[in-house]
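Quick question: what would this complex look like in 3D?
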Amino acid sequence: MADMGDKIKIGILGAGSVTEHYHLPVLKALPEVQIEWICDHVEEKARALAKAYSIPRSFTDLEQCPDVCIALVAIPVGYRNAPIQHMIERGWHILCEKPFAMTLSEHDRILAQASAREVHVGVGLMRRYYQAHLLAKRILQDGIFGEVKELAASEGMRMRGTGRQAGWYLSNRAAGGGVLLETGAHVIDQVFNLFEIQRFQILKSRQHRVKEVDFECHITSTISISNQEDIQFTLSLSFLRDLYNGILIRFPKCTLKLGLLPEDPLTLCAMDGAKLAQLQSPGGAGHVYQAFYLEWEDFIRQCSSGRKSAIAADTARLSTAFIEEAYRQASQANSNPVALEAVRP
Amino acid sequence: MSKIKVAVSGANGQIGSVVLRHLAQCPQLEAIGICRNAVSAALIDSIGCEVRIGSIQEPQSAGRLLGDCEAVVNCALATGLPKESRLENRAIIKNLARLENCRIAILMSSVAVYGSCIDPERSRFEHPRPDTSYGKTKLHLERFTRRVFSRSPARCFILRLGHVYGPSQWLTRSIVELAQETDFKLAFDGRLLSNCIHASNLAVAFERLLLHSPDPGIYNVTDSPHRTWREIFDWHTGVLKLPRVQGMSEEESERRRHQLFRYGRRNLLAKSLIEVFRWVRSLPYHDLANSQAIRELGYSLMLAAPASLEKRFKKYYVLHSARLRTRLWTNPPIKIRPEMFCGSMPGRYLELPLASSALPDQESEMNRELEEWFRGVSGQEMSRREFSSSILN
């Protein structure tokens, strides 16, 4: 592993849109960071981004890449096993785009291997830095509105004008395609991070699939948090329809609405739904670039000081387990014609 | 009688998906959806018609995808960087014109070619004057299309679509937002014709065009009969049980329309200067006034000035502060939507018998779809949502 001297050397695996539009602009704004290389199996993509962002070198083979302090993994989750193993063996700290893993065993295996080599691993769960999320978390921790009665979350937008060509990873379940993994990873993590959940139980998981890829899902579950009884949690995700994008937290006498964008405020509503106030706090990210910036800053600090960041990969284990279990139950339901018929009118 | 094979490009889009769904149900047509990737194709899987995956920007790929089709409805529009997307859109049009078996090509333009607020003195059917980049792009593509198709045997129809509304359409989202805002008022109390068309009616228009085939050329397309803004708003608020939108007075509406027309008649440089001036006026001058150096300067000047001037300044300062702070209540900002201040599109309309020519009544499919969409996006029934059968069908 390269020494974390004056400049922190970063390598990037994956020249896709999240790298181009978010990570690179933010990394370029961090004066203590030096991007050493970018690697992608498509040579033109790697070269084009390297040229656009003045990155000295581009590669198509990870094994040829020189040592760095931190490697960003921004390739579909289904293709990450071998690259991550290689990075751990070389002692590079890893910041991995979400979702971290497709199964809990895979998640734990990576953590165990990284721990054995004293490699730090983080997950790109930048919503944890959003202003409204941090404020809601504080409100819940302090029990300001009392016990939570019910929790619901949904995120969905009819996909249109994707701008992508054939071979897009989202069309391949093995690569990590599917609304639950792609979209659900963020919103599930937000909920789990807000409440510091200890346990969950999925009661019902239904998916609409086309060629094994889920385009809509609905999950009913209960979650256990300390100092109160279990809460019902319902989640809806969709690529097919427009849904309400947010998290609703119902208390005995009011509701908190948490939007999913960094600029969304936290809204306090009365029992009849009337908006009473928009709550804002000075801390946290109010823009997506700020969220990525805070994520990088926090992870770099973890790698240099050893102090765990807000996005340490072990804090996302339960989310991975939840998604895995939801897929498992949905597969059982989808493959059981009786269960499917029961849902039709 | 054999069916007419019609391809719908951009089949996953806001309009393309509605059009494809409708055409697929027409017994005289064999509808084929064209999408760029498998995800887009999966999104329209439930329609049940053939879907072909590929890019119509490349000539060979376009030939493979569309070569056997007798008609093409182009709902695809490349967006992104201006020059890049212009070249992509031109490539699509060229490829469509080269199709040997294609007899009918329908390409979509927009009411935006006439400008945001249609000025009858400036913007005409033969010579529209767009004032937005979207409108200019559409007009450019219209002219390019006419040039390219002049050498093609296919009958080419360019449809200037009115504002499309319906579930998930941008206008419906806008109307729902505006209806829930206290500072919005409907220009002329909504009596002006809206240039709107429901997405389902648009799909019906395409079907009729394919089956009845009038003279090729450019047509405006709206609901028939042409609805007013009040009818459009009242339909939304009535179905969704939202408060009825207030109307703006005739005098206020005229004054604002006059301002919009005056602004629209200026050239781009003048408009840019106006925007700069507006920005300067909006700067928080009280922040400057409260800065240490400026306060020190003001204090020094006051000491040097005669006593009468000092008192006059104090009075002016107090009056100005009060006026500034209360301006929010006396002159609340009003949301202006330019398209609601003008009349109908000039020129030729597509006069085809449309299926839904009456206002949607409470039991109609349009109402149900709108309600269902709104329930989803508003989060009204989030915690009690059950997996609806429409997903599985």
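Answer marked as accepted. Residues 336-345 of chain A have pLDDT under 50 and may be disordered.
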